[in-house]
Write a structure and sequence with these properties.
With 230 residues, this protein is of the alpha+beta class. The chain folds into two domains: 82 residues, no CATH class; 94 residues, no CATH class. The chain is 51% helix and 9% strand. Strands 1-2-4-3 form a four-stranded mixed sheet, with helices on one face. The longest helix has 31 residues. The relative contact order is 0.12.
Length: 230
C-alpha cells in the first residue's frame, strides 16, 4: 500500500550508484536495488519522476519496499536493515529466483507511481460509477477507503505481471503463482491486498498484449476486475 513517508534521515540513491552512496549500502540493499534497476530505468524512460531512498536506520516490521509521493515525485523507499520481513516475504523462494521476485515487487510499486503521477490515485476510470452502499457515516467511509486501496493494489499487481510477461516470459507463471500465494496468505478476503480477482484474470494465455505499454496492458485487465469489485 502506498503511503506518504517522512523523508527525514534517509539516504537518497540514484542510478548509477554514486561511490559514496554505494559504500554506505549493505549487501542486501545493493542486491535489492540491482534487482529492481531494470524496472526503475524503464519507468524513468517513461517520464515517471522517481527517487530511490534507503532508510539507514533499522526498521523492524516496516514494508521492505514501499512507495511515497512528495512534492510531485515518487519516492521508492527500501527499509531492509534490522527488518525480518525483508527475508520472510521471500520465504520459500530459492535464492537464485529471489531477484526475479524483487524485480516484480519493484514493478508493482512503479504501478503505484504511475497512478499517482497521472493524478489518478483512487479514481475510477471514465464510465465507472461507484455503487451505492447501505452503510452510513464512518463505516461507509472505511468501506470506501478499503475498496479504493484494494483497487490500487490490484492495478499495481497487474503492472508487475505485465512487466514479467514482457521482460521475463519464462518466469511469468512462477511469479504469478508466488503473488497468488502471497495475497492468499497475507490478506483476508475483502482486505486491502485481496487482489485475487485481478490475479485470476492474468491466468489466460493472452492476458497481456505486448504491443501496448505496461500501464495500458494493466489497465485493460484492471477495468475487467473493477466490474465485480464492490
Amino acid at each position: 500500500m502506498l503511503k506518504l513517508l517522512s523523508l527525514m534521515s534517509l539516504l537518497i540513491v540514484l542510478f548509477p550508484l554514486p561511490a559514496v552512496a554505494a559504500a554506505s549500502l549493505t549487501e542486501l540493499e545493493t542486491r535489492w536495488l540491482q534487482a529492481g534497476k531494470p524496472v526503475i530505468e524503464y519507468a524513468r524512460g517513461q517520464g515517471l519522476p522517481i527517487d530511490i531512498i534507503v532508510q539507514p536506520q533499522e526498521a523492524p516490521g516496516a514494508v521492505p519496499l514501499a512507495l511515497g509521493f512528495d512534492q510531485g515525485r515518487c519516492k521508492l523507499v527500501l527499509s531492509l536493515r534490522g527488518n525480518a520481513m525483508a527475508e520472510s516475504i521471500l520465504q520459500g523462494v530459492p535464492p537464485a529466483r529471489q531477484g526475479v521476485m524483487i524485480e516484480a515487487m519493484t514493478a508493482h510499486e512503479i504501478g503505484h507511481c504511475q497512478r499517482y503521477a497521472q493524478g489518478d490515485w483512487h479514481a475510477l476510470p471514465r464510465g465507472f460509477v461507484e455503487r451505492g452502499n447501505a452503510q452510513r457515516g464512518q463505516q461507509q467511509q472505511q468501506a470506501r477507503e478499503l475498496r479504493e486501496t484494494r483497487r490500487e493494489e490490484g492495478y499495481a499487481d497487474l503492472v508487475a505481471l505485465a512487466w514479467m510477461h514482457a521482460r521475463r516470459p519464462g518466469q511469468y507463471r512462477e511469479v504469478l503463482a508466488w503473488m497468488r500465494a502471497l495475497r492468499a496468505g497475507g490478506a483476508a478476503t475483502g482486505g486491502t491486498h485481496a487482489t485475487q480477482a485481478w490475479l485470476a484474470l492474468a491466468e489466460g494465455e493472452r492476458a497481456f498484449d505486448g504491443s501496448a505499454s505496461l500501464f495500458e496492458q494493466a489497465q485493460v485487465l484492471w477495468r475487467m476486475g473493477l466490474i465485480g469489485d464492490k
